[in-house]
Amino acid sequence: MKTASKKVSAEELVKDALAKVKQFADYNIFTFVNEEEAIRKAREIDARIKRGEKVGKLAGVPYALKDNFLSPEGETTASAHILSGFKSPVAATAVAKLEAEGAIMIGRTNMDAFAHGSSTENSYYGPTLNAHDRERVAGGSSGGSAVAVALDIVEFATGTDTGGSIRQPASFNGVYGFKPTYGCISRYGVVAMASSTDCIGFFTKTPDDMDLLMEIASGQDPKDMTTLPDYYSDDAANGRVLPELSGSGARRSRPSPRGSRATSRAAALRTPLRLDSSVTRPVRRIGVIKDFDNESVDAEIRKALHDKCELLKSKGYEIVELEMPALKYGLAAYYIIVPAEVASNLSRYDGVRYGFRSEKSEDLSALYLNTRSEGFMPENKRRIMIGNFVLSSGFYDAYFLKAAKARTLIVKEYEKAFTKCDFILTPVSPNPAFKLGEKVDDPVAMYLEDVMSVSLNLAGVPGLAIPAGETKKGLPVGLQIVGPRRSDKQLIEFSKELM
Amino acid sequence: MKYLPTIGIECHVQLCTKTKLFSEVDNDARGKEPNSCVSPVCYALPGMLPRLNGEAIKYAILAGRAMNCKINATSRFDRKHYFYPDSPKGFQITQFYEPIIGEGYVELPSGVKIRIEHAHLEGDAGKLTHFDTYSLVDFNRVDTPLIEIVSMPDIHSAKDAHDYCKELWRLMCFAGVTYGDLYNGNMRFDVNISLAPEGSKVLGTRAEVKNLNSFRSVERAVEYEIKRQSKLLDKGEKVVQETRGWSDASGETTGQRSKEEAKDYRYMPEPDLPPINLSTEFIEAESAKLPLMPADYRKKFDKTIAGDILEVLLDYPSLMNKLNEINEKYVKNLSNLFASVLLAEEKSAEYLNDLPSATDLNELAEMNEKKELSSTATKEVFLRLFDPQMKGRGAKNIAKELGLIQENDLGALEKIVDAVLAKPETAKAQADFKAGQEKVLGFLVGQVMKESHGKANPSSVQDILRKKLT
Lengths: 499, 470
Hints:
The complex is a heterodimer.
Chain A: H1 10-23, E1 30-33, H2 35-50, E2 62-66, H3 93-100, E3 104-109, H4 143-150, E4 156-161, H5 167-173, E5 176-179, E6 199-204, H6 207-217, H7 234-238, H8 257-270, E7 285-289, H9 299-314, E8 318-322, H10 330-345, H11 364-375, H12 378-391, H13 397-420, E9 423-427, H14 443-448, H15 454-459, E10 463-470, E11 476-482, H16 488-494
Parallel strand pairs in A: 2-3, 2-4, 7-8, 7-9
Antiparallel strand pairs in A: 1-3, 4-6, 5-6, 5-10, 9-11, 10-11
Helix pairs in contact in A: 1-2, 4-5, 10-12, 10-13
Chain B: E1 3-14, H1 54-66, E2 74-75, E3 78-81, E4 91-94, E5 104-107, E6 113-123, E7 127-130, E8 135-138, E9 145-151, H2 158-175, E10 187-197, E11 206-212, H3 215-234, E12 242-247, E13 252-258, E14 268-269, E15 276-277, H4 280-287, H5 294-300, H6 307-313, H7 317-325, H8 331-342, H9 348-352, H10 358-369, H11 375-386, H12 395-401, H13 410-421, H14 427-434, H15 440-451, H16 458-469
Parallel strand pairs in B: 11-12
Antiparallel strand pairs in B: 1-9, 1-10, 2-15, 3-4, 3-14, 5-6, 6-9, 7-8, 10-11, 12-13
Helix pairs in contact in B: 1-2, 2-3, 6-8, 10-11, 13-15, 13-16, 14-15, 15-16
């Protein structure tokens, strides 16, 4: 990561990035450009460098922030009309950690409104274009962030991944995209999509940058009770097989409130996090999932997968074929659990306290109906309706509870798989980037894009999307490496073997 | 026909934790500006997550133990959805599937036992104030921790309903988990009432009267419902299952909305909060902190304090706890002073918040028993002990300053008596007394008291006078 120093000033880095923002304006990447504030911050860092003061690990590094991260700079809208005009008084924990190391946000990136989608076509601000083919989608929901990194506007961008929203746009644009273990990075201050599957992660050009960002952003946060102890804790560093999800998938066993308070205090005392982790057990066996390597997958993507397997074999790794039949319930379970949580989490957008309020609000019921009808995108409404349906009394057992059970099966399926192999290599999505408008009217086809990504979110396991070549048409192909819970660091390290 | 009423009560208790249930913001909004005790979490900004308050867990354990309830080792939170401006998140975080407090019972002073089905933790909602063309919302109350106590349908009369609510209030106040201010809604009661013909094994259709905030209104609402439902049933009509509102002014309940329109709350597990896992050691250690409860005091002071006085004092946990600190031999004396002097005093509410030390009270009782203070003087010094101006000076010092200490030195008293008897204006009274007119003795005692400036012990004066005049 190119940081500011006596040779290169932060101001130059920031101005360079801002110039590229203008150069690529027609890709519709940014919903807000933080020009003044970014330059002011850059000068501040330069002054400190000049005075010989200590600066952070990301001093002067410009970055792009997905529009669903709260920060007092610009409006936080999650690219949804209903949040128009919302200026947050607080910053997300992840943002605060990055900025404490000197990173400078140069703009907010476009996304599917509330992260509902796989193409960034569901944005109130219109779609973002693919970095390699302007007729194609950027992927989604973190499309703007992926394209910002792919076009070298910034060296990194933040993303959120609820069912593939980092990995799929990363693979559509040929960059690294990481969805960490659930709970690795605090969700505090990130507009919630589905609380039990939302993960904060990054887009980068290299595994080392990813590792650095994870080191900075991860760790237990008292403001998010679902966060895990440090990414580089003794547990995470020394044992490859780490504390697993237990019991039913929907209700993972987490530390008691007393426990987590105590450890979070301890964690605060231990910062900065340790860097010297070593994999005690060498990675030898890589699994390939049979069902994700058949005719339903694009031939060129399969070829990329086979090529990487050959590469690994030549390096002495053993390739293990995995049967993971429970994964076929993944998409169905996902599209029940996630809409249920979505419907619940979106209840707060009612036009009463902040954001958009319909002009037509002559009484309370009109205020609710019109604000929500006008403020949400069609895909938001679709998910709210599915979610409310599966939670309604009489249907809860038939849908939500059953999906929660399927989720448990998926958790167990991954546990079993990781007794047979160390990491799993799969495609991220069955196809490379599709054409703009191609699937926008076919929600089911759009949901099928997520078939290979969602099961990781249900199981809480980490997945890293890596660039794996191009199709004949020049479209990037991405693969993902999947690891057991809390193997995040080793997983990023291992990805270098596939470069 | 004769009917047996069956009553179930749900009681919401606001916990007096320092901060709110799900964020670290002031939970004590008493006397504060609207929307001044509000965090981004209460306000439900995007991306805000609940953070569970450990103190509320400890309070829930105390509350549960006060009702002889089992504390569940594992409990969880759920979301209960509804749209209303008092609910910023669009849902309430409650415990629908696995509550923290399990089965138990409350024993009424009459000996009747009411079983508790369960009790759970949840966040309170905000408060709306309606005006002609608009409404204002105050979020100060949002996420104030509540425990909702659900009784079994073990109550069968208006009086038991009243006594149960009152006993719950006492238990929660003694456990120290609530301010217990009913007027300001610290405890609110929802009462279900149904009637069934006597001997019937099936319960009748129930009506629910919501949001009652006094024991008296619980009792009156139940009485009213029993009458209303009896009339309906006598006429062969049906009771509608519905929520009814109570008006204290008219003394009537009126239908609000029927259950057909009841909302579907779409309950689901709260994904932002981990389950509460409590170890046996933790539950035991916290339970051990439960102070003496009304039942303990009834047992303890059974022989010392008169039953009616004890029941009055049991409404004031601070007084009972003070009596517990006081020297046993003075408990009777001081409990009488508490009941008849302190509670009759205009400023008693203010005084109750800051009681004098046990040492001061012991000293006062001792002076009274040694006859150093007359009963009138004792009452006077007693009240001064509560006076912020006098507090901390000690009973003896206050009595001295006020010149209230009685003259008990018989030699000195005799001299005063002699002086009075030597006065010509007492000659007639002396003669009358000698002639057998007992009542003039009072006049003579009065003269001696006057001569002593009120410090003489009147009973000693009487003794001396009798000796001298016979």
